[in-house]
Each structure stands twice: as structure tokens, then as C-alpha cells.
Amino acid sequence: MAKKTSRWRRRGLYTLGFFAVVTPALWIGIHEIPWLGPALADGVRAVVGPKPIAWAEDVTYGIQDSFDRWRYKDAAPKTFWDVPSGAPAPVAPQPVATASGEPVAAPAPSAPVEGAFPPPAFTPPFESVASPGDGAWIAMKEPGLAKAVVHPDPKRSFAAVAVVAMDLRRTTLHLVAGTSEPQGNVPQDHRPGLVPKDAAGDLIAAFNGGFKAMHGHYGMMLDGETFVVPRDIACTVGLYRDGAIKIGTWRDLKATEAQMLGYRQTPPCLVEDGKMNSALDLEYSKNWGATVSGETVIRRSAIGVDKSGTTLFYGFGEAVTAQALAHAMRAIGAEDAAQLDVNYSYPRFLLYEAGAAGQAPHVESALIPGIKFSKGEYVTDSAPRDFFYVTRKRPAS
After folding, report:
1. pLDDT > 90: what percent of the chain?
2. What is the spatial distance between Cα 240 and Cα 237, in angstroms, rounded to a whole number?
3. What's the whole-model pTM score?
């Protein structure tokens, strides 16, 4: 009996030792090798179904969030870059005093010019977690692009959203199908997964698209070919033949489908007509990719457009809920906004540099530090999933 107990004890210790080694190794691998996490998740999901994977993600992200909330309890808000001292930031109006010394209301700030670029400095949604640079737009290397940081979660100073604003009078947005996603009955040669060669000379940036087809069956159409049939409840990023970009619920946009070059659908709009989706009153709503219990705090991305339709926004959120991401997009001036892809491996915003004569452009940098990418991503290395890319507009001849 003692020998049997000892044998089971040894087996238990071996098992614990195995998981003690494999678990951190897998965590490191998933965070260092971009394809590993998705491949593992898809492989296990195919064998045991989606629920165990959702449970595992929920537990993992829940532990990570609890640890981060303890670790960063008294830490300064997370930042991605230093804000230049000359960058304009919002200034709270101060009360003024009359000759008698009685304070009176501060004068209302002058109204921002609609369509101005860079956009006007914005007020952080939660002052308690704002960093000194929140609200300031910083000009980027490419004319027509600016970036900013916003902290949209009062519970988490480590939750931060990096945002890029793009002037649509100087840039153009395009959509590309991935080699395998979204799945649909479209010929393989219509799924390049690459920026077209004739656009490479004007390529500025590229960023991720939406969910896989199996996760919500959100629609996509490009150049008259429907990859996935659209859903009425889905938020839709519509790219129009006249260059306009509209974001809204499909039932409100579908009458204009004939005028579109393409569209990509997402879960319900985060922001529409300047208002946050009412379902986001619940902090941990599951409708935007949260796992089983809805407590997942993950990496998320979003796309938005301002009221004038002349500024496009891309948001990259670290450790954010869908609610927090919506707060961020609304704060920066997005009149309408949709969530794009989520989780560690998928969201990315890459900036390109022109290649030497006869050579393809290559990735110069990512929007934030720590993003894993290849130099040829989206230009010589085909993408299995759909994505957007941005080109500069040529002056009219």
C-alpha cells in the first residue's frame, strides 16, 4: 500500500513538474511567435470544440488581469511614447474673477473647426488614470498621420489605447481578402493576401481586419464578390467608389451597397452617431469577443471616422474591454466606430518605408513597441486573414 501511494505521489509530482515547465514555455512561445497561439487554439478547438478553449482563455486572461491590477495598483499610467513638450493638450477652462473678486463661469472654449487636421486636442475620458500626454495629437513622419494615447478605464492605469488619425484628403483606405479568411466561396486567385504591386509605391501603412468567419459570420464584400453574406445587426465599414468611408449598422447602409467598392462587417458598432452602444453599459459585455464569463480584458483594435468624414481613426488597445475601447474611440472624436480583431496575435498597425529601386516596400516599424512582424508583411509575405492598407493620394495632374 505504501509503495502504491509513493508511486501515485511520484506521478503527481511528475505531472506538476511537466506543467510547471510547459505552461511558461507555452506562454513565452505564444507571445514571441505570432502564429503559435492561433495555431494551438485552432488545433485544440478542432478536436475538443470551442467551449474548452473559451474556458481556458477566460481563466488565463482573468488571472492575468487580476495580477496586473495588483501589480500596477499604484503605477503611473502606461505610455507607448514620450509626448513632445510642444504638443497641444486640452486645457480645462479656469474660472475668472470680477473686480469684486466674485468668480464667474469660465468662457466656453472656441468650437473646433470641423474636419481640421490634426484633430483638435481631446479631453481624456477619465482624469484619474490620464497621463500628461493624453489628449495631445503628435504629428507622425508621414504627412496626414498623427497619433495619440488615451487611457479609457478608470480601474486600470495599465489599460491604454494608441490611436492613429489619418487625413482622408491625403490618404486612401483599401481592403484586401486574406488567403483563407474570411472563408467563403471565392476563387483562391481572388484571395491574394497582399498589397497590390501597383499600390506599393504609395503604401503608408497596413492594419488588421476583422474576426474569422466562424466567429460571428460577419460579412465581407470586395469588388462585387461576396465572401460572407452580410448581417443586418452587424456594424459595417463601407468603402465607397467616391472615396467616402461610412461606418454604421448594415440595415442603415445596405441601401447604398451598389455604391460600395467593398465592406467589412464587425460586431455591433461601438459608437454610432456619436453615442456609445447601450449594450456597453455592461462593462464585461460578451458581444465584442469576451469569453465565457465576459471578464476577459484583452488586446483589441477598432476603426472609426469623425463627423466630417475626413478623418479616419485606428485604435490599438492593450488590456481593454470593449466598453473601454468605445470610451477611447468616442473621446478622440470618432462619430462612428467599429471593433476589429482582438486577442494577442492579430491586432497590428504597421508603417512602411519605400524599397530601393525595383524593390517592394518593407515594414519600418509598428505603432507600439513589442509587436512581432516580418519586414515583408502584407507586401511579400501573404496574410491568411483580411486586412486594410493605406496609401497616399497623388496630386491631381
Report:
1. 55
2. 10
3. 0.78
